[in-house]
């Protein structure tokens, strides 16, 4: 892509349209399964939703009785239903229709489905549509029958997916390099296969990143609590999170009551989430505890981590200054020891004075200026 951009600028040629790089999905009910019916799978140009019943009063292109497909079946059975695809634009549109498995995006837990050319191994592979390609006139709705055949060995529990209508035209994004984009809209499928249901959740990999001002009290500090939720059961879970944090001697630093997270964690999926904490302590020993329960499920799990809230930059600067002071004191002490150990630097001023006095008095035996010696108090 970099080479293509450089070449286009150098030659002055128009940017070329690249091959399709991605599919943008606008899926019904991106939050919890209890999303209201008003949240239709609609991007303004076309919509996808369960077809109204045969006797429904509203048969308009935007009619909808169900926000998504809620199905229940025994292993080995086949379900039949219809999906409505409405062309809301002023020109005919052609769509590719297919069933897709659903999954959670790892980073934020968003609801996503497999692309048209990706392999499905669950409910997406059980869906058979009467038509895989359809052209719909402007402002018209088409109802397409489909079946869901549940394998005899299908595991009990939830099997989430979607029926997707993919626009066959390739759109372009603005910029130096034109990128081809294919857009799709899907209606979610909530299929539950009969059998024992197990709601199980674990809280893993709790860790805390802390940041603050250089010196305590000179600014605000913050922390980011990171954790992983893993659905180890066979039913979808809408988690609720409560967060507490305590400092030294059990002081309460944070107490957030339980709230419903904006995601539906699908069976067997894991997501990495973050919890921001502004006004975190600047100097303390902190223990963070996460408690996760679930909406309409018997789940109650905890996880936690501890960390030192310390202004490490200030501590590092203080240690550097202290190290410099210690080094200076050691050098001064070494110099004093060296001076004490050197005899030449320790002369006796009194001894030197006595020697000079004897020389001036002519006390030496070879002194020519001596007039005699004192013996017995007389001078010889």
Brief summary:
Helices cover 15% and strands 45% of the residues.
Task: Report on this structure.
With 380 residues, this protein is mainly beta. It is 15% helix and 45% strand. The strands form five sheets. Strands 1, 4, 6, 7, 9, 11, 12 and 13 form an eight-stranded mixed sheet that branches. It has a five-stranded antiparallel sheet with strand order 2-3-5-10-8. The chain has a four-stranded antiparallel sheet with strand order 17-16-19-20, with no helix packed on it. A hairpin with a 4-residue loop joins β12 (171-173) and β13. Mean pLDDT is 80; it is low at 1-40 and 369-380.
Keywords for this structure?
single chain; 4 helices; 45% strand; disordered N terminus; 22 strands; disordered C terminus; mainly beta; 380 residues
SSE map:
Blueprint: H1 2-11, E1 17-27, E2 41-42, E3 46-50, E4 69-73, E5 78-87, E6 93-104, E7 111-113, H2 123-126, E8 127-129, E9 133-136, E10 140-149, E11 157-167, E12 171-173, E13 178-193, E14 201-211, E15 222-231, E16 239-246, E17 252-260, E18 270-278, E19 284-294, E20 297-309, H3 312-341, H4 349-360, E21 374-375, E22 378-379
Parallel strand pairs: 1-13, 4-13
Antiparallel strand pairs: 2-3, 3-5, 5-10, 6-7, 6-9, 6-11, 8-10, 11-13, 12-13, 14-15, 15-18, 16-17, 16-19, 19-20, 21-22
């Amino acid at each position: 892509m970099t080479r293509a951009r450089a070449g286009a600028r150098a030659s002055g040629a128009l940017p070329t349209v690249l091959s399709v790089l991605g599919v943008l999905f606008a899926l019904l009910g991106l939050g919890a399964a209890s999303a209201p019916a008003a949240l239709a799978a609609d991007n303004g140009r076309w919509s996808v939703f369960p077809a109204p019943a045969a006797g429904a009063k509203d048969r308009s292109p935007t009619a909808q009785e169900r926000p998504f497909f809620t199905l229940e079946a025994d292993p080995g059975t086949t379900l039949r239903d219809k999906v409505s695809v409405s062309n809301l634009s002023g020109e005919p549109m052609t769509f590719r229709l297919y069933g897709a498995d659903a999954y959670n995006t790892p980073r934020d837990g968003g609801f996503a489905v497999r692309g048209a050319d990706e392999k499905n191994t669950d409910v997406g592979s059980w869906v058979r549509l009467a038509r895989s390609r359809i052209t719909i006139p402007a402002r018209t709705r088409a109802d397409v029958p489909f079946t869901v055949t549940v394998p005899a060995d299908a595991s009990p529990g939830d099997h989430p997916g979607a029926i997707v209508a993919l626009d066959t035209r390739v759109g372009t994004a603005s910029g130096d390099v034109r990128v081809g984009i294919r857009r799709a809209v899907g209606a979610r499928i909530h299929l539950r296969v009969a059998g024992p249901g197990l709601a199980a959740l674990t809280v893993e990999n709790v860790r805390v990143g802390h940041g603050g001002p250089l010196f305590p009290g000179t600014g605000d500090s913050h922390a980011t609590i990171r954790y992983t939720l893993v659905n180890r059961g066979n039913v979808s879970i809408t988690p609720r999170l409560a967060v507490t944090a305590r400092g030294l001697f059990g002081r309460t630093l944070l107490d957030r009551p339980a709230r419903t997270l904006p995601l539906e964690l699908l069976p067997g999926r894991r997501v990495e989430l973050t919890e921001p904490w502004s006004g975190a302590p600047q100097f303390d020993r902190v223990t963070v505890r996460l408690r996760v329960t679930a909406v309409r499920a018997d789940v109650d799990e905890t996880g936690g981590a501890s960390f030192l809230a310390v202004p490490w930059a200030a501590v590092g600067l203080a240690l550097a200054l202290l190290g410099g002071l210690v080094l200076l004191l050691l050098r001064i002490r070494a110099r004093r020891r060296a001076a004490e150990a050197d005899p030449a630097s320790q002369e006796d001023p009194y001894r030197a004075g006595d020697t000079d006095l004897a020389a001036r008095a002519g006390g030496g035996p070879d002194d020519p200026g001596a007039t005699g010696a004192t013996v017995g108090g007389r001078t010889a």
